[in-house]
């Protein structure tokens, strides 16, 4: 996947699944994000339940497959993080959305599959399903000339975050914060971005550019096809591939990679230079 060799990756996935003990499928003894769900059966004509067991960004990235899946199956139910339901309601092909409660997951359907297994199941490379696959209108206030800044990633991987102070040179431009909570940066919304993801999406749609670390905001902006500059740590996640400044997942995205571990200063210097071109 990191090389972009999807066909080989999917064949390896098939082999791993075939060699796995079927009694461990959706194993309740494992954390949700470590479970495998799909048993490999063809999905066409079945009543399918898509389970979203990973992070918000993962769900947004792989939601591109939902309309294509919905056109092939008898019915499509998506069990997703409750905060994403207002966004996914804008997509075609979904018959029912239910909020994922880890303490009381939905009952199995004719065929269950985890959302990150959809690429392999459908054998569809991401470039075949380009954004925007989420549809939403810009909401007030209108920041159409502003740049959105996000410097905080999820707590489980602190290396993706950077100190807000490094972004001070960017605030010579009109900027808004895409992080929750107040900030000392000179931005138009010093109290932070909206709490509801649907309102954050409307904010993103009103911006001329998003500059963000690797977190949910990057996937939301990419899914909406908003111009996005992604700040990527040196040892990047598989989805950002290798030695590329673009992404087949999000054509509106440009990648800025750390030249060495922890070197955000060089990344920000490149951002400043490109903004001033």
Account of the 3D structure:
The protein is α/β, with parallel strands linked by helices. The chain has two domains: 123 residues, no CATH class; 129 residues, Rossmann fold. 23% of the residues lie in helices and 15% in strands. The chain contains eight helices and nine strands. The strands form two sheets. Strands 6-5-7-8-9 form a five-stranded parallel beta sheet, with helices on both faces. It has a four-stranded parallel beta sheet with strand order 3-2-1-4. Helix 2 runs parallel beside helix 7.
Tally of contiguous helical segments:
8
- CATH top level assignment of the largest domain: Alpha Beta
Cα-to-Cα separation, first versus last residue: 34 Å
- Structural class, from helix and strand content? alpha/beta
Q: Fraction of residues in helices?
A: 10-25%
Number of domains: 2
Strand order in the sheet with the most strands: 6-5-7-8-9
Beta-strand content bin: 5-15%
Q: Give the CA-based shape.
A: globular
CATH superfamily of the largest domain: Glycogen Phosphorylase B
> Please, what is the average pLDDT?
96
Low-confidence stretches: none
Reported for the largest beta sheet, the result is: 5 strands, parallel
Query: What's the number of extended β-strand segments?
Result: 9
Radius of gyration equals: 19 Å
How does CATH name the architecture of the largest domain? 3-Layer(aba) Sandwich
Question: If you consult CATH, what is the topology of the largest domain?
Answer: Rossmann fold
